[in-house]
Design a protein that fits this description.
Strand 5 and strand 6 form a beta hairpin. Helix 1 runs parallel beside helix 3 and helix 2 packs parallel to helix 3. The protein has two domains: about 45 residues, no CATH class; about 55 residues, Double Stranded RNA Binding Domain, CATH 3.30.160. It contains three helices and six strands, in the order H-E-E-E-H-E-E-E-H. The protein has about 110 residues and is of the alpha+beta class. The strands form two sheets. It has a three-stranded antiparallel sheet with strand order 2-1-3. Strands 4-5-6 form a three-stranded antiparallel sheet.
């Protein structure tokens, strides 16, 4: 997951803590040294694991599939995460990795 997506998750309210993920520092560098990182500066962002992202989606999480297809923006997308099918309009997230797809689904589920 890149810094920009991790920052979008933070800005949308995803908790900035966990035991298994990493952090990006203010320069966008990934670090697993939790002892030296604090979010008080406001620029460090947490990189959640796939299981943390699925848990954050809660009971709205539906499926995660691996595909090979071009997305609407013309880029190859390998993963598709969808919400539980409750309406005709199903929210989804697409990405090159499962983490990216579920992160984008979480963002869709938490739009204000």
């Amino acid at each position: 997951m890149n810094y920009e997506l991790a920052k979008q998750l933070k800005d949308a309210g995803l908790k900035q803590e966990g035991w298994n993920g990493n952090f990006y520092d203010v320069d966008g560098q990934e670090s697993s040294d939790f002892g030296d990182l604090v979010t008080a500066e406001g620029d460090e962002v947490y990189i959640p694991t796939l299981s943390e992202l699925i848990e954050a989606c809660g009971d709205k999480f539906g499926t995660l599939h691996q595909y090979k297809y071009p997305s609407n923006n013309g880029k190859q997308q390998d993963w598709l995460a969808t919400e539980q099918y409750k309406t005709a309009q199903v929210l989804k997230g697409e990405g090159a990795t499962p983490e990216e797809a579920v992160a984008k689904l979480w963002l869709e589920l938490n739009k204000k």
